[in-house]
Amino acid sequence: MNLQNKQDYINLLKKIIEPVLPFYEKGQTRLELGATSAIYEQDTIGIEGFSRILWGLVPFWSSQEPVTDPVLKEFEEIYLQGIIHGTDPKSKYYWGKCHDYDQRFVEMAPIAFAMIFAPNKIWKPLTLEEKDNLCNYLDQVNHHKLPDCNWILYNILVNVALKKVGRPYDHKKMDEYLNRIEDFYLGEGWYRDGDSYHKDYYVSWVIHLYCLIYAKAMYEDNPGRSAMYRDRAAMFASQYVYWFDNNGCGLAYGRSLTYRFAQVAFFGGCVINHVLPFSLAQMKGIIGRNIRDFLNYPIFDKAGLLTIGYKYPNQYMAEGYNSPSSPYWCLKAFFILMLPKEHEFWKVDEAPLPRMDKLKLLKPADMLIQHMKNQTVALCGGMYSIDNSHTHAASKYGKFAYSSKYGFSIPITSAILPENAPDSSLVFLKDGLVWNKRVSYECRVSEEEIYIRWSPAPWINVETTLIPMPDGHIRKHKIYSNWFCEAYDCGFALPIKERRKDGKIECLNGSGKPHEIWTHPNTSLIYPRTVIPSMCYRILKGENELETRFYYH
Q1: Which terminus of the chain has a smaller tally of CB atoms within 10 A, N or C?
Q2: How confident is the model at residue 503 (pLDDT cuts 50, 70, 90)?
Q3: For 279-372, where are the E strands, in sequence order?
Q4: DSSP code of 241?
């Protein structure tokens, strides 16, 4: 798909959102796209769907260019009427009173975004009473508890919006949360996501992106903080770019990957803030290649709706907060539509990635990145706590290696290897169960290697050293076991047709025997049918030393 000029991106936005038009319900206040549920109230799913489409519409509206397309004009009327009815406590379609930790606080963010950057569409047309209703609805975020993580930025956006339209806002709460964000900062542009200690895509598509929204909206009000956020974004970009390979694929790592090309929303946020760590052509290439990569996979259903999944529909990988509406967070990638059609961004051709080191230490993220011609691989230290965990957290954060080309797999059970799908892991078989790595009790990351101390079960302790090589990596394991058992040191989950070409593994120490694990269908995030090449070792009681070399294609 050609993504050269602004109209190309507008056409793509329309193509993605037009299929949702038949599914607006209840006075246009809710968008109901499926039958699956989530951890929050069922009614909130429809509210979530309504709000998330705004992440694409607001950048399009913000340039105030005339809208002549009848489909896009229809969205204008839907969102004006939906906000009027949804925020009116006398309406039978009212979105309701909120409670502590309410998902509706997340969905207030795009409405606040619209008030800040597209007031002509959803603020100025309102009557005084309707404006009061909207502000009163949003103000609920100031009177309830929020999770101590990226959620506090939703409060900040709401208060910025209230301030920008000249309404009372909670400046004390906003300052409190702005200061709390500083506690999350790790240096070199990196944040942790609150007390969870995760360093994943939430750093880019929420923490940095919303700070860049703040910087864009509040530069005159708070130039110092706004400049700081821009400076940090530039630092982060110089490392975050290593998560993307030459084909546009982002590193498959962490939670919420169903948001897909929201992976590149951060770069759009940089461009609209005049933050250019790379040339405009290179920034354009990063965004365009990533979007096109996802569009080359079956991410839509037959009605044209986005599905839960990564490169194909997949419920196994979903978090508890992923409803049928959730994937439309990907529309954050359209932030670049805030640029006027005369902007140089729309005139330049996409350029390849900037010059990349073949091996890059991302110290705050506890990663060693191997950047190669056709993929990027992250050797990882793992996660350090199961507190505030998310679905399949051990698989999303605790494996030894993550690949942009091969992704990772999600277990269905711990009963047998095919259902456990233990790619990029060392697992143990005992008592009819597969025992996986979960928490890293100690981790040391350097430019030469990663050392990890961990234990999958009370009867066994492991020390693992990951050593990057030009064509792969080596794993050295010291294992202290109280029992006899089997261990499998596993590579990436490969599509069946590529297993002979890409699945080379070599035993360097120990009595390893090659073994193929034919996984249960749909355990991989990228390929519906996969095989995991592995080396099988017999573990004796006492101390064991193993060494396996994994080659990349």
Answers
A1: N
A2: confident
A3: 359-362, 367-371
A4: G
CATH number, domain containing residue 528: 2.70.98.70
Domain membership of residue 353 (yes or no) is no
Q: Does residue 254 sit in the same domain as residue 365?
A: no
Task: Tell me how many degrees the CA angle 380-386-392 measures, rounded to the nearest 5.
Answer: 70
DSSP 383: B
Of 222, 227, 209, the C-alpha closest to 153 is 209
For residues 139-157, average pLDDT: 97
Domain match, 182 and 118 both: yes
Mean pLDDT on 381-403: 86
Q: How far apart are CA 271 and CA 500, in angstroms?
A: 43
pLDDT-above-90 percentage for the chain: 93
The average confidence (pLDDT) of the chain is: 96
Do 178 and 94 share a domain, yes or no?
A: yes
CA dist 85 → 89, 131, 207, 211 (Å): 8, 12, 31, 30
CA distance 298 to 239: 30
Could you tell me if 396 and 474 are in contact, meaning their C-beta atoms sit under 8 angstroms apart?
no
Structural domain boundaries, residue 411:
359-551
* Mean pLDDT on 17-45: 95
Number of compact structural domains in the chain = 2
Tokens 């290179």, residue located: 282
Tell me the angle at which helices 103-117 and 54-62 cross, rounded to the nearest 10 degrees: 10
Structure tokens that stand for 484 in this block? 């006899």
CATH of the domain at 140: 1.50.10.20
